[in-house]
Write a structure and sequence with these properties.
It is a single chain. The protein is an all-alpha fold. Helix content is 79%, strand content 0%. The chain is built from six helices and no strands.
Length: 136
Amino acid sequence: MEPVAINYLAVIVSAVAYLVLGALWYSPALFGTAWMKGIGKTKEQVAADSSPLNWVYAIIAYFIASYGIARIMIWSGGSSIVDGIITALVVGVCFVLTATWVNDSFEKRPKGLTLINILYHIVGLIVAGIIIGAWR
């Protein structure tokens, strides 16, 4: 593998976009109410359990995921928005879907909750893939 520079600005923007998507995805405007029902908590309980560190952990995780998409695109020769979407779908389905599905099955989590969480990450990865692909 030849070293190729990562566009870190695209990775950072992708991570922030992934985070913003999560804020919207888990809001009452989209899936927040169903998600809270799935985890068995009220809005007040979720707020009481909230910590600024959760946001720090999330942005670090999304930076790592976005970096991974960028790195895989470089290794595979991807250089477009379509390549970014394909890379994100492969990563999302092969790793996020499978890992979450297995864990949630053993933990007996509601199927609706599993679907909300899996789709969030697949869509988040697609957003990252689009941004990174657009800047390749």
